[in-house]
Structures are given as structure tokens and as C-alpha cells.
What does this fold into?
Amino acid sequence: MPFSLQFNYPIFSTSCSHQLKLHNSIRNQPFKFLCTSPQSEEAAKDSSGYEKENGNGHVILVEKYRNGTSKRYIIDNDSEIKMFLEEHVPATTGSQHLEIPVTELSWLPKVIKDFVLPAGFPDTVTDDYLDYMLLQFPTNVTGWICHTLVTSSLLKAVGVGSFSGTSAAASAAASAAAIRWVSKDGIGAVGRFFIGGRFGNLFDDDPKQWRLYADFIGSAGSIFDLCTPLYPSYFLPLASLGNLAKAVARGLKDPSFRVIQNHFAIAGNLGDVAAKEEVWEVAAELVGLALGILALDTPGISKSYPTLALTWLSVRILHLWFRYQSLSVLQFNTINLKRARILVNSHVLHCTVPGIDECNRMESILLWQRFLRPRIIFEVSLEDMLDRGKYKSMIKQLLNLYKEEKYFLVVNQQKPRDFEVFVSFKEGATSLSVLRSVWQTYWLYQNWGWSDNIFDRLEQSLVELKHRFPDLLQQLIEAGWDTNNLSLKVPKEMSIEELPAL
It folds into this structure.
């Protein structure tokens, strides 16, 4: 059965001219949320038939979510706004605008699909991707079976049991040792499995950051290995934790470095670049192994655990410093969110943009996006946007304000001391829409406070955006930035479809 929640909020009567003003006349109109239970088809029909029963109302926008849920906002001539929540959108609806396309592998649960397939599949990969991965899976399974068998042979070769001349107990002990050793590797593989499935869509945006984080996590894993002589009875759990941490680090390192390699291969020679990188890495490995062996031959290190641990710590810190320096010299000409913030802020304040070298030096490798200011929160429901401010019922004004943009942007009024904006994207939004929203955010951030009228500020920021954004693009092109391949992804968990007014 359908159920409804009714809240009474004031709706302001407005008139829009070149400068958007708020009238003092206030009319108390109810703001309704009508939710339907997905367990009843009749309830769904009742909700979808609301417009037919109320001829003076019409849908103004639809929020669509990847899990199939949708929210429809309906407004009538009395400025009464109702929101219908449908947890499972029917296959056929009364309007073609509400149809959600069926993707490939619809039989596969969404959680699994998001975990094992790239974001946006199948549109973001080639047609042969799935066939290749389905054949790669049994290929890797057979490879690891061989690895397990070979590991058992290696352990027997170094004295842990043998194929002949030993008792059944000794053979069983040798097999148990091999199983424990392989189990250690298996626990580590779980880390790579989790990283690849959960965070696979992050590496393209900020490979520098994730490559550095990989070394920090790998260092933590080495600490567990270093503690095994102190607690030999806990060798398996310590070694497993160490392997887990290092596997997580590898899960971060490999995809991040592939992005970096792709950055190097400007002539389409990715294979050659990867092969030569392997030469450099093997040469460094041989030198490092030689120096490590010399260090182990030193009596002070080989006979003193504290000296060994201190030496490891000193070399590891040096390793992390070199890693940071190597990432700092990278000069990406693509624009991700961090670099977009630097470029946009410079353009808003000084009407200029830094060059590729300067901007990459200014980019913070360690800092997370959530700690950057001003804070930008993407994919916020229109309902949450409006409930957080004093203009909860000004939906029509918001729609009119952003009718020429592919997104909605409002400032969070609940945190006056901590500037924060909410952004949601309409259907058809592109990476350029993300860049436009970032520019508007920084203009508001730098000019906040010149007016007490919130909509005056938003409208003025859009006027500035319209006049100054073309200059930003022109300066980016002249500075050598790749504006045709922006690394600014439009969030896909939610999109807003704006319907034409009747």
C-alpha cells in the first residue's frame, strides 16, 4: 500500500528578471513526499497515475539511481511539490523519459558486476574485453595450481621432507608446510582482490597519489615480516599479514604505474616503454640485491637484530623519499580534479593559468580530495540539497537558474564557517560540465559574502562563468593542456533528467 509523508514548508513567490530577487510575500504550501512500496503493483500504479488524477500537475525532473530507484518531482499550479519514490521502476511507464536502459549481464547482481567489471561496462571497454577475461580466469587458475605444486617441490629440495626415503609423518609434515606457505600467499592475494574490485576506478584520476600510498602500505607489510624473528611461534599470522599488506600495495602499484607508463608512451609505444622499464627495474634489483648481501655479511648487522631493524628503517625512509621525488617530477598534461582546482583558482583570482610544469609542482600528492578546500560533494539528491538550506521549496527557481547548465550546484548553508557545495549532474553531463562546476565553486568561494541573497550569488556566479569560462579554455589550450581528454569523471551513481514544462 502506498504511504505518504506530508511536511509544511513555506514557498516563496518569485519573479525572475535579469537579476533574480525574492519577494516578501510568503504562501504556506505543503511539500509532500509520496513513497510507494515496491512489493505492491497496485501501489506502483497508484503512484504512477498521480498525474492523471491531478491534471494540473506535471513531472519537472526525475532522479535516477543505478540500483533502479528513481525519484519523480511533480509540481502543480499552486506550487505544491510532491516527490514519488519508486524503488523498482517498471519496465514500461507512462512516459518514455522514465525508461531506464537495460545493460549487459542483467542477470548478474549489481554488487558483483561493479566489483569485477570496469565502471561503465560495456561502454567503457572494447567488445573483446569480456571474452578475454573469461578465458584469462581459467588460465590463471591453472597457473596457480602449478605454482602450488612447484612450491612443494622447492620446500622438499631445501630439506623439508622428500619424495622418497622418509616416513609418512615426514611427508605429511612437508605437505603441511607447503600448504601453510601457499596459504600465506593466498591471504595476500585477498588484498589484491579487494583493491582491484573496490577501488579500480580511482587510479586513472590520481596515479601519483596511489603509487605513493602503495609504498607506504608495502612498508607496513615489511614491518610484519621484520617481526617474525621476535615471535617465531606466530610466523604464519605475521607473515600472512605482511603478505596481505604487500599484496594490497601491489594492487595499488600495478594499475597506477600502468597509467604512468601510458603517460610516457606518447608515440603509442606502450609495449616498448614497459619493456624498457623492466630493464631499469631488473638492473636496480640486481644492484639492490648485491648491496643487501654485502650488508648481511657485515657482522654488526647479521648478529644484531636491533642494528638490522635500524638499518632497514633508514633505508626504507630513503626509499620513500626517492619515491616521492620521482613522482614529483612527473608532468601530466591531463586535467584531473586536483589540477583542475589549481588551474581554476588561478584563473578566478588572476585571470591566468599556470603551465604544466608549475601546476604539477603545485599539486599535492599526499593530500586526499576530501581534505581540499573548498569542499565539493558530488551526487547529492535534490531533496537533500534543498532541505539543507533556507530555500527548501525554491525548486522552480533552481531549475530556472541552471536551465543552461548540465548540473545543479548549491552552497551548504548549514556550515557557514566551512564553505561547502553540493553538485549533482543532469543526464548528458560531460567532463567539461565537471570543470564548469569547479570554476563556479571557486568563484563563489572567492566572492562569498558580497550579497545576503543566496540566489543573487548563484546567478552572478553563473553570469561570470558564462563570460569567463571560454577564456579559461583558451588559456589551457595555449599552455599545452589536453582539453580534449579531461580526467574529470561524471559520477554515475545518480543522474537527473530534467523534463520540459507543460
Summary: Residues 168-199 form the longest helix (32 residues).
